[in-house]
Amino acid sequence: MSATVVAGDTTIGGEVEWAACDCCGLREECTPAYIAGVKARHGGRWVCGLCSEAVEDEIHRAGRLISPEEALTRHASFREAFRSAGPPPDPAAHLIAAVRHLVRRGFETPRAPRSTPTSPRRRLSQDGGTASLSRSGSCFSALAR
Question: Has residue 39 been placed in a domain?
């Protein structure tokens, strides 16, 4: 895979070219200097910002020291495997399971105790006052108009 420069335009800020990402194929409008800098960082390949962040993440997640070229290869293979997998057989059930997993994970996360209570009910009951909450106006009446 190699970066493809599609077209060149002249603008007030200078020459602008379209470059296609070697990993995902995303096309971006960039200056030649920016394209050269990205290619220098990624071993001659032009990589978009999203894939560049994914490559950095691959480097940090690896248990050992890996080269940027190896991280780019890992990201490209992960991306290809993801694209070839296709959509799930039942997207609605898949979405529901993912949301259920997120909610359960949120409830299982231990919460740090707060130094000061934020609830007015707790503050009043600690001070010995009455524990009542006042009701503010509803926004639904404004929405119905």
Answer: yes
